[in-house]
Amino acid sequence: MVTGASSGIGAAAARLFAAEGAAVVLMARRKELLDDLAAGIRAAGGRAEAVPGDVTAPADVERAVARAVEAFGGLDGAFNNAGWGSIGTELHELDDAVFDRTMDVNVRGVWNCLKQQIPVMLGQEAGGAIVNTSSTAGSFATGASAPYVAAKHAVLGLTRAAAAEYGRHGIRVNALMVGATRTELMEDAIRELPMLEQAATARAVQPRLADPVEVARAAAWLLCDQSSFVTGGAIPVDGGCSAV
What we know:
Elements: E1 2-3, H1 8-19, E2 23-27, H2 31-43, E3 47-50, H3 58-72, E4 77-80, H4 96-122, E5 128-133, H5 146-166, E6 171-178, H6 184-192, H7 196-201, H8 212-223, E7 234-237
Helix pairs in contact: 1-8, 3-4, 4-5
């Protein structure tokens, strides 16, 4: 299961996972983009189901998980990638609605996913693996809005708590600490604030924006058996931003 799958990291992950043999259930709000992605995966010989929905709505998440079980017999892995953020406005000037949306999508969205995914994995002998998308903003203030920094810290807390609670049941839970990536959200921000690209990459050892597939590859590793002794981790995919 991949959330935020209609573009960016989520879409790249969906294609990559399917190309490596996984059956994928794709969730995002934009139905047309999601349907096109699923159709493209199937045309390439993969298996994909599109389930339009909003991660902030528990019933939508429940429906996506149920589709995975119905279509493919279970849920072995989940990439909880949907996110939303803003930049350029200081904390005291932010509208409460921005705070609410940022926390709802990034924190409640992950919460809703975990609540629906874990029971299915508990019922499977093999357990499962979950990857949540956090950010370098989960470690330090990056210039993104204060609610986004707080939300991505919270994603790490949920990840570690879930890993500790369910490890004995064979469920691994990790997070990606994602650096500046050439996503739709980032491209929109750069169009509004052209100096943002240089600012976003200045700290990194590799001073460039990541391609979404570079993040997807890290998620693929965490979801497969090659990372079988990794859980509760916060894995940086940030071009060395957190190393300096």
